[in-house]
Amino acid sequence: MPAKSQTWTFTNRPAILSTGVVGGPFEKKGRIAGDFDRFFEDLWIGEDSYEKAQRKLIEEAVSIALKKRNLKETDIQFFLAGDLINQITPTSFAARTNAIPYVGLFSACATSMESLALAAFIINHGGAEKVLAGASSHNTTTEKQFRYPTEYGGQKPPTAQWTVTGAGFAVVGTEENGPAPRITSATIGKVLDLGISDPFNMGGAMAPAAVDTIEQHLRETGRDPSYYDLIVTGDLAKIGRSIALDLFKQKNLDIRSEQFQDCGLMVYDKSQPVQAGASGAGCSAIVLYGHLLNEMKKGRYQKILLVATGALLSPLSYQQGETIPCIAHACAIEYL
Amino acid sequence: MLAMFFWAFVVGGLICVIGQLLFDVAKLSPGHTMSVLVTAGAILSGLGLYEPLVNFAGAGATIPITSFGNSLATGAMQEVQRHGIVGVLTGMFEVTSSGISAAIIFGFIGSLLFKPRG
Amino acid sequence: MANKNQNKTPEQKAYDQFEKKHEMKRPVLKNCIRAFWVGGCFCLVGQALTYFYIYMFNFTEKTAGNPTTATMVFLSMLLTGFGIYDHIGQYAGAGSAVPVTGFGNSVVSAAIEHRTEGYVLGVGGNIFKLAGTVIVFGVFSAFVVVLIRTVVMMWGGS
Amino acid sequence: MKKIMYVLASVCLLSGCGFNGPEHKDSKMALVKKTQPSPVRLSNTGNKAVSGQLKKDVLGFDSIYDVAIIEGPKETLVAYKVRHLHRFKMKKIEKQLNAFLKKRYPGRKFITSSDYKIFLETVRLKEDMDKHRISVGKAKKRFKDIIKLKQELT
What we know:
The structure holds 4 protein chains of 4 kinds.
Chain A: E1 7-9, E2 15-23, H1 25-28, E3 38-39, H2 50-67, E4 78-82, H3 89-98, E5 102-104, H4 111-124, E6 130-137, H5 139-146, E7 162-163, E8 166-173, E9 181-187, H6 202-221, E10 230-233, H7 237-250, E11 260-262, E12 278-279, H8 281-297, E13 303-311, H9 315-319, E14 326-335
Parallel strand pairs in A: 2-3, 4-5, 4-6, 7-12, 10-11, 10-13
Antiparallel strand pairs in A: 1-9, 2-8, 6-8, 9-14, 13-14
Helix pairs in contact in A: 2-3, 6-7
Chain B: H1 2-24, H2 30-46, H3 50-57, H4 59-62, H5 66-83, H6 87-90, H7 97-113
Helix pairs in contact in B: 2-5
Chain D: H1 2-16, H2 25-28, E1 40-41, H3 48-59, E2 64-71, E3 75-82, H4 90-104, E4 109-113, H5 116-130, H6 136-152
Parallel strand pairs in D: 1-2, 3-4
Antiparallel strand pairs in D: 2-3
Helix pairs in contact in D: 5-6
């Protein structure tokens, strides 16, 4: 491996011990509804603001993940998480509730893999025994912050994406002896900006970042794309995915289209009015910790590479006419 | 009267189509589009073209947001005739006040009654 | 906008072209037809209300516009509050944004959205978050137009 | 999508149901179709032939298709309806009409209006008078109210 590498390889078998995945009413009607642990029937989740509701999502997902293993908050050493809202308050407030030493993270929608990669890194190097990692997003808080009030009758173009209401959290540790989903390597992406400035076209902006991270990962691990049963991007949605496939061809990466999926296209049913697909920090988290891990346990996939993509914009930056810088982090998860 | 309904529908619809073209072809945000339409209404009013349109199409011309620019300009022009150049400042909201006050009042009442549904 | 393009590196420009090919085309014709009929319907309702006020109250054709506008904004408040207007908006685009109900919707939706921040700072401070641009540009353009008109009339001598 | 259709349809219906005017048979339809009411005279100063002629003169305008006239003690109210495609030029028509009346009937004061409301009120007043529902004194007061309404327009 070259000296200056952006990929970590984990030899001490950090594993995903348990997961908690919760979603909202809209996700319940989606395609992978069977892979959630719990749904909330109402976007308010009994709270008086959507921001508090998002905090509740996180708390619920965390407590489900802990309960599955009969763990208490005190058994967890670090809590690595983030979301999309200003100053990541929902996550920080949830961290106030569970009182686990907390590292707040932000890579927009790539936060899910950023947290998992860091968690695996900490575990691998003996920094902790158990770490909680994950991400969340809430449709209306995100709409409110990045776009328009939720009741505003603006028309979304077909390139727009629908922010997932959901949270996915995982306990990462080492103690598992038998087969388990393990993080074998992770690639930290660099920020790429190819000059897209339309906030309603995130997929188009993020695709190059995803392709770059995948390319780096494959080169630095010396793996061929066929090593993986599935390469999954975070929330590129329709446009981003077709761009990425084209970019693979340009770069002579042999990734077949049936091997290349996108979380943004897996969450919702075709009949749901989500335009190009799903997005949000919670999107890749719920798909990985829910659907994909279940499929791995069933034996459908052995090795997957999950590349979460994030658009690092703020409402301020795009109003000031700035283009959208993007990032992608990848984690390789193998069932062994 | 039936002709009035017909033309209200057609003219109102066409103004909306202009708005849609600004959305889709010029790729303007809703905020930009509305600003353009309001400004267009004010300019047409200044040229004396908006009033005939209102006479012709009734609500087809008064309901679209362009009429907001028209009534601002009309209010100012009326006041100019009465009080001279200072009227440009003082007469602006003479005609428009109902739309804005209704929006404020119902907006506030709405916030008392409703929660965003998502 | 113009200088944004100049600042782009050749790589960014090339990607821009490349990306455009993948972007889904907006269904302009379909959107326009929808905008036309929905926008037209809003105007029909407005026209009916105008006649209603002429018939039943002491309003003339000119003055009936005011109560009509207010009623339309009221309707828009109900449609917004019950969560219907955003669905109409997605279907009709400008057809529901351009009529005065769209103005009402932008005010009411902002007010409802920010009620969690309190009535003074939340509702009061954000109520014109979206509609503010319309008011600002309406007032300023009307000011400029009338000023020019007045000056021209004075010089023209009519 | 269906939901939207229902809502729009019900809004249209609701607003359409608002028309339940008072007991005026003719005036209910005054805005929908031609009414062609015969001129009304509130005082005995003028003569009938003249007001009939006045009506014919106003209808002589190509762009005007319906007219209601009330002759008051001092002034004469002429409410008229303009053919729809001519409504763009409404201001010009009003100017022409005023000039014409001034020339044709010098010495008489005319108030003209193309506003539906004025027309409607004129027809309503005529009906009430025809049915002797109101006294001449009251009618004169109603006439003044209509004129006041017209003056508010400018």
